[in-house]
Amino acid sequence: MSHWIECHMKKVKIGIPGLDKVIGGGLVEGSMTVLSGGPGTGKTVFAAKFVEYGAKHREGGVFVTVENKKKALLEYLAGFGITFPKNVYVVEVPVFTTESVMLRDIESTVEKIGAKRLVFDTIKIFEYLHPEPNDRWKSLLKFKEFLAKLGVTAVLCLEKENAPLESFKLEESLSDSLIVLTREKERDMIRRGLMVLKISGESGEKLHRMEISKKGMKVY
Predict the structure, then answer these.
(1) CA of 33: how far to CAs of 27, 142, 178, in Å?
(2) Which fold has domain 3-219?
(3) Which helix (H) or strand (E) holds 206?
(4) The pLDDT of residue 202 is above 70
(5) pTM of the model
C-alpha cells in the first residue's frame, strides 16, 4: 500500500495513549486487525479500550466474548479503569456453538445498534469449529468477508504464546494489520511490549514498551 493512499484513508483511533501515533494515526476504517499474544499480555484490555474509546466518540461497539461471561468480563475490565458506555453491547458466545448461530447473533447485534467497531475475543473458537486447518482457513476468510459486509472496524484476539515471528504467516496473510503483545519477567519486574508486524498492509518489527495499570494502557 502506497504512503499516499494510506494517508488519505480514514483512520479510527484506538484510544490507547501513545499507540495511535506509533501506527500513523489509527487503524484504517473498515479494516481487520489481529491482536496476538500469550496469556496475561493485555489482549482483552487492549481490545476493550478500542471499543470503549469509539463508544465515547459516537461509534457504537460490539464486544464478542468466547471465554468469559459478560459479568466477569466487565468486572475484570473495571480493574483497569474501563467501563463500557450504553452503546457497547457484549455478545456471549458459548464454546459449543455453531458457526451459523454465532454469525447470526453478531450480525443482529451490530445492526441493532449500528455498531462501527467490533472485537472478537477470541478467534481460537475456530479451532473447535473447524479442527481441519484447511477448513479453518476457509472459514476465517469467510469471517473476514462477513465483517467487511457489516462495515465494522474489527479487532480479533488470538492467544499465541512465545511464538517466533515467522510463525505469524497465517495471521499476517489474513489480516489488514497484525499487532503482537509480549510479556517477559526480568527478576522481580514484568516487562511488557507491543510489536506492530503489519499495519495497513505494510510490515515492520519494532518493539515498543507498554505499560498496563489501573488507569489502562500506555505505549511508548
Answers:
(1) 8, 15, 6
(2) Rossmann fold (3.40.50)
(3) none
(4) no
(5) 0.91
